């Protein structure tokens, strides 16, 4: 269901005048989400180690963008 929802969002935003890209961040250990975003055409443009902390443990974030063509 997540894939269909994101596909619909990407389809709709193409009609927004002036919008050139969509950026997001995802926790790097969430491999399923990272893979889904890549399948849909998002590209990684950076990572940040220990961007988040939970229960004393640091988690990295992957920064991704989708270019509207």
Description:
- By secondary structure, the chain is of the alpha+beta class.
- The protein is 30% helix and 43% strand.
- The protein is built from 2 helices and 3 strands.
- Strands 1-3-2 form a 3-stranded antiparallel β-sheet, with helices on one face.
- It is elongated.
- The two termini are 24 Å apart.
- The relative contact order is 0.26.
Please sum up the structure shown.
The protein has 2 helices and 3 strands, in the order αβαββ. The protein is α+β, with helices and mostly antiparallel strands.
**Computed Rg:** 14 Å
Number of helices: 2
Largest sheet: 3 strands, antiparallel
Q: What level of helicity do the residues show? A: 25-40%
Protein structure class:
alpha+beta
Count of distinct strands: 3
Globally, the shape reads elongated
Overall pLDDT level: 95
Stretches with pLDDT under 50, minimum 5 residues = none
Order of secondary-structure elements: HEHEE
Indicate the topology.
Blueprint: H1 2-13, E1 21-27, H2 31-39, E2 43-54, E3 57-67
Antiparallel strand pairs: 1-3, 2-3
Give short descriptive properties of this protein.
69 residues; alpha+beta; three-stranded antiparallel beta sheet; 2 helices
């Amino acid at each position: 269901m997540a894939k269909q929802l994101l596909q619909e969002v990407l389809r709709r935003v193409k009609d927004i005048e002036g919008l050139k890209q969509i950026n997001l961040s995802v926790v790097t250990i969430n491999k399923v989400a990272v893979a889904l975003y890549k399948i849909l055409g998002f590209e990684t443009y950076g990572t940040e180690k220990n961007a988040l902390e939970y229960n004393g443990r640091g988690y990295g974030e992957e920064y991704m963008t989708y270019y509207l063509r």
